[in-house]
From TrEMBL:
The protein, known as: Endonuclease III
Function: DNA repair enzyme that has both DNA N-glycosylase activity and AP-lyase activity. The DNA N-glycosylase activity releases various damaged pyrimidines from DNA by cleaving the N-glycosidic bond, leaving an AP (apurinic/apyrimidinic) site. The AP-lyase activity cleaves the phosphodiester bond 3' to the AP site by a beta-elimination, leaving a 3'-terminal unsaturated sugar and a product with a terminal 5'-phosphate.
Cofactor note: Binds 1 [4Fe-4S] cluster.
Residue ranges occupied by any HhH-GPD domain in the UniProt entry: 38-185
Keyword set, alphabetical order: 4Fe-4S, DNA damage, DNA repair, DNA-binding, Endonuclease, Glycosidase, Hydrolase, Iron, Iron-sulfur, Lyase, Metal-binding, Nuclease
Protein EC: 4.2.99.18
C-alpha cells in the first residue's frame, strides 16, 4: 500500500469520525488506567458498568487500597478474571502510592513496571490520557492493519512499528481510536461489513463481503 492511499484512508476515517476516543468511561488518568487494566478479555460495556459502581466509591489509588482486596472484588466481580485483575490493580495502586505520589507516571518504562500493564496498556495511557502519538495494537487493530494492507506484520509489535512509520503525522494522535472502532463495528473478524465501509475501495483485502 502506498503513502497516498494510506493518507486517504485516514482522511476518510477522520471525516467520518472527527473526534474519536475510547469507549471506556474515565475522567482522570488513574480512572483510565484502572479501566484499561479491567478491560482485558472483557467488553468496554461490561467494564463501564463495573466502574460506574467502583469509581463513585474509590477512584484514586489510596481509596482503592482503603477498600481492601475483598472490597474491590465485590465492586468488579461482574468482570471476567476479576480475581486476578483485582490483585493486579491493588498492587498497582500500592506502587503508585509508594513510588509516584499517587499519580499515574507519564513514561513508558514506569507504566510497564506496573502489574498487569504491558506495552498495549501503556500505549493507551500515553495516547489517551497524556496526548502522546502512540498506537496501541489490540486484536482489532492487528486485524484491520493486516487485512486492509495498512501495515502488515506477524505480531503486534511489528504492526505497531509499521503503523508509527506509515501513518501520516497529522493522523497519528487519533489513529489508534479510528482503527479500533473500525475493527469493532465495520471490519469484523468473521464477516467484515465491506458494503458499508467508508474505505472499501482503498482496502486491499481480496475477499470482500458485500454487506
Amino acid at each position: 500500500m502506498n503513502a497516498q492511499k494510506r493518507y486517504e484512508i485516514f482522511a476518510r476515517l477522520r471525516a467520518h469520525n472527527p473526534e474519536p476516543t475510547t469507549e471506556l468511561h474515565w475522567t482522570t488518568p488513574f480512572e483510565l488506567l484502572a479501566a484499561v487494566l479491567l478491560s482485558a478479555q472483557a467488553t468496554d460495556v461490561g467494564v463501564n458498568k463495573a466502574t460506574a459502581r467502583l469509581f463513585p466509591v474509590a477512584n484514586t489509588p489510596a481509596a482503592i487500597l482503603a477498600l481492601g482486596l475483598d472490597g474491590l472484588k465485590e465492586h468488579i466481580k461482574t468482570i471476567g478474571l476479576y480475581n486476578t485483575k483485582a490483585e493486579n490493580l491493588m498492587k498497582t495502586c500500592r506502587i503508585l502510592e509508594e513510588q509516584h505520589g499517587g499519580e499515574v507516571p507519564r513514561t513508558r518504562k514506569a507504566l510497564e513496571a506496573l502489574p498487569g500493564v504491558g506495552r498495549k496498556t501503556a500505549n493507551v495511557i500515553l495516547n489517551t490520557a497524556f496526548g502522546e502519538p502512540t498506537i496501541a495494537v489490540d486484536t482489532h487493530i492487528f486485524r484491520v492493519a493486516n487485512r486492509t494492507g495498512l501495515a502488515k506484520g506477524k505480531d503486534v509489535v511489528e504492526v505497531e512499528r509499521k503503523l508509527i512509520r506509515h501513518v501520516p503525522r497529522e493522523f497519528r494522535q487519533d489513529a489508534h481510536h479510528w482503527l479500533i472502532l473500525h475493527g469493532r463495528y465495520t471490519c469484523l473478524a468473521r464477516k467484515p461489513r465491506c458494503g458499508s465501509c467508508v474505505i472499501e475501495d482503498l482496502c486491499e483485502y481480496p475477499n470482500k463481503v458485500d454487506i
